[in-house]
Specification:
Length: about 375
């Protein structure tokens, strides 16, 4: 019989998995190098980010899967509920279940022992795999996720790997000729303060008026309503929850398709999850443009001040994360000119738009999250098949 790590790879290949998002755990250290060898892989900096990336990949026709330590489920549950569950987006997740079997780290125990009850309480489907004789259960986990359009989590006990003779991690960890990495970063420093003259709706409508066949993903709340009112399109994906993941959904899309992906993100969202820019800068898809709508406020919740108002420059933050093609604008004319310029380029880009706080009275989106997802996915599939 094959080692359990090899059996997992076989099951994933049979299921047609074509993208993996991973974060390490000591218990699956021999599995992860095999994943890297056999599948396109995104190495995450935070588990929640994988939810957004995998959602984008699925919307573009992919079959993604996550492989993480079970502790990461603690920061994924809201994203799974407010994105995957309400939008009916499938996601199989293989988790190394810590805190229960042979656990030597006390801090792993409290969350680990209660994890099945936590998942049950959250209404999230899960399957326990206690030993290597139950690895076939993983086939159903993946099948169920995609057939029933929901997350399905495999809690894999460390006992599964006990008899394995696989030592892939040793080879992966000690290459014969360690690669010397050169690190460079270019900063764009704007010496003058740009006075905000536009509202967020002005900026969204300015870009929307110049959209052609681009795919768009828009931050939750009022920004979605503003784009919906200004220019509703089948290729608009509107967010209803999971704040902080909108640019990551754009990343997942951009990694799967060649056409331009335009993300309308906000300062509150980007600062809630600056890891998103790290993931994006690392993967650097050439067809992704992020419109950083910075009004220095949490616009949808009463315009409370964000750190971007006085303390953080989003353009410099993006530069530090490896996104080097950036610009800072404050007028409609500059925004349109910069968008046209970046759209003609083949380079990951971010436009930092300085705005005044404030919302417009936009109508609610007359589509459910599930309807938005279905409409978007079908429209994109039709466009890509032409």
């Amino acid at each position: 019989m094959a080692n359990p790590e090899e059996e997992v790879i076989r099951i994933m290949k049979k299921a047609g998995i074509d993208l993996t998002a991973t974060l390490p755990c000591d218990r699956i250290k021999n599995l992860l190098p095999l994943v890297s060898e056999n599948f396109p892989e995104i190495r995450l900096t935070r588990e929640e980010n994988g939810v957004g990336i995998c959602a984008g990949a699925y919307l573009a026709g992919g079959k993604p899967m996550m492989l993480i330590q079970s502790t990461g489920l603690g920061n994924m549950i809201n994203a799974l509920e407010s994105l995957n569950v309400i939008c009916k987006i499938p996601l199989p997740v293989l988790t190394s279940w810590r805190g229960v079997y042979g656990e030597g780290i006390e801090a792993q125990v409290p969350f680990g022992v209660h994890l099945p009850a936590i998942l049950e309480g959250a209404g999230l489907k899960y399957t326990i795999i206690e030993d290597d004789g139950q690895l076939s259960f993983l086939e159903n986990v993946i099948k169920d996720a995609f057939e029933n359009l929901r997350p399905h989590i495999a809690l894999v006990s460390p006992k599964v790997w006990e008899t394995s003779e696989c030592c892939a991690w040793e080879t992966a960890a000690t290459p014969e000729k360690p690669e010397v990495m050169e690190r460079t970063c270019r900063f764009n420093l704007t010496k003058e303060n740009l006075k905000p003259v536009m509202l967020r709706n002005d900026a969204i409508c300015a870009i929307a008026s110049h959209l052609a066949d681009e795919v768009t993903v828009t931050n939750l709340g009022v920004p979605c309503k503003e784009l919906y009112a200004c220019k509703d399109r089948d290729l608009n994906f509107y967010m209803f929850g999971s704040m902080g993941l909108v640019s990551l959904i754009g990343l997942g899309l951009a990694l799967r398709i060649e056409r331009k992906v335009v993300v309308f993100d906000g300062d509150g969202s980007l600062l809630m999850n600056p890891n998103a820019l790290l993931e994006i800068g690392k993967e650097a898809p050439k067809n992704l443009i992020i419109i950083g709508l910075d009004n220095g406020a949490y616009g949808s919740t009463g315009s409370q001040e964000t750190c971007a108002m006085r303390f953080v420059d989003l353009e410099i933050l993006a530069n530090a994360c490896g996104i080097q093609n950036t610009a800072k604008v404050n007028s409609r004319e500059e925004l349109i000119e910069t968008f046209r310029k970046f759209r003609a380029m083949q380079e990951l880009s971010l436009i930092h738009v300085i705005l005044k706080p404030g919302n417009t009275k936009a109508p609610n989106i007359q589509l459910s999250p599930e309807e938005v997802t279905k409409r978007f996915k079908e429209a994109l599939k039709a466009e890509l098949s032409q």
